[in-house]
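Preliminary data (for renewal application), 6-phosphogluconic acid complex.
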Amino acid sequence: MALTIESFDNAQTLTREFAAKLADILETGIEARGRASLVVSGGRTPLALFEALSQKDLDWSCVDITLADERWVDESDDASNTQLVKQNLLVNNAAAARFIPLKSAHDDAAEGVNDAEAGVASMSQPFDALILGMGEDGHTASLFPCSTQINDGLDMSSGKTCIAVTPTTAPHQRISLTLPAILNSRNIFLHLTGEKKKQVLNDALDGAAEVQKPVTAVVNRAPVTLMWAP
Ligand SMILES: O=C(O)C(O)[C@@H](O)[C@H](O)[C@H](O)COP(=O)(O)O
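Predicted structure:
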């Protein structure tokens, strides 16, 4: 396990330093390969980071952005991660970035998996940076321990980049990047705030089964940087 921990005194400092680090990574990717790719998570934690990152002065027209997971709701629904990204990240300078949604017009997430995979395949990979959140049940992206699809999501030989997930402890059908797709990243960040989440992570890393605490499946297999503040 290679977990690098970057702790900050407060959320404001974390936001500032994290946004600067991501901007550097994206610039490096653009310089090296012409385009850069960024995968972000939904939830409440990244809101301030999105706002700070959106103001960074870089060639956003060369940046592709997608989500680590999406709830299968219309973009007009407040639960939509696409809405969250469009309102908070794809603004200011970052409005020039290309957004690749995981959600499509299909009724069910399962029917949308092929379209989501095609979108992801259009991005430069390995992803330059991928940011994960974590729930207090140890889920990351939408790899929920409660779901019947968890083994498929963690299957390193599935050949799939996206999976439909129906959590029983959270609302909405989801679509999630799979574990192999998540790991196909140059820089993986876990973005957490608060003592509670740090404790959940520490407990999970203390030998929990990966299907019970899916965040550990990522940390067990790749270098991950934890960006944390109280
Ligand atoms: O629900 C989503 O869309 C996610 O991407 C999910 O994995 C999220 O990152 C965690 O549930 C943490 O959510 P909070 O930041 O709201 O605590």
